[in-house]
Amino acid sequence: MKLITSLVMAASLFAIAGNASAQGNKIYDTKCFICHASGVAGAPKLGDKAAWAPRIATGMDAIMAIVIKGKGAMPPKGTTCVDCSDADLKGVVEYMISKSK
Fold it and tell me: In order of start, what are the domains of the chain with their CATH numbers?
């Protein structure tokens, strides 16, 4: 019985993670692409491993602090995602990182 419960819980976590990734992709495609597709004002482009590597090296907490509070040319929540929750933003960051490793 414990094995079945563990398997069900693991499957649920994978479903949640998949949904977060899909939501991150959707938000990127509707809001974040405006700067991150073309590299406006130095925004790291989606898929640009060289641009993302030093950011990834700082860790998720540091990246999230920049996304939420802004830094340099990056305004808080990118100005296009002011209605996004922190969880939404984390999903977008995870999506962008997954495409840029």
Answer: 2-98 (1.10.760.10)
